[in-house]
Amino acid sequence: MASNEITTILGKGSNFDGKLTFEGAVRIDGVFSGKIETKGTLMIGETAEVTAEIVAANVIIEGMMRGEIVATTSLEIHSSARVYGNLQTPSLVIQKGAIFEGGCRMESRQESGRPELSKPVSKRPEVLSFAESEG
Fold first, then answer.
1. How far is CA 8 from the centre of its chain?
2. Which residue of 39, 54, 62, 120 lies most exposed, with the fewest beta carbons within 10 A?
3. Cβ atoms of 25 and 10 closer than 8 Å
4. Which tens digit of pLDDT belongs to each residue from 108-128?
5. Which residues does the chain have with pLDDT short of 70?
């Protein structure tokens, strides 16, 4: 079986509230509320409405998602998606037309802290002026 092959589907019209853990790949096309944990792939289909805390290796979103997502390998937000919440992943793709409202941190879960800047970043952009030469 290929690692991206869907092994389980929560179909359109289904409603699930609770904790979902699985291996392989799962597609949600119905309504889900709760927590999802996997080292596999989670696909949120176009008809899905998900409100959850998600920790997964790969996440693909085509429908509506509200909550926190930690994708340890990759996260894709397709053009039909509406995502409201915070994201953490080392690899992010957001297609044109998608809606994303929230925060994003582009690092793996294992990385600790944020890199220090060598000097403070000015809150005001520098203004360059050019004087006309006399002559």
1. 21
2. 120
3. no
4. 655 545 444 344 444 444 444
5. 1-4, 108-135
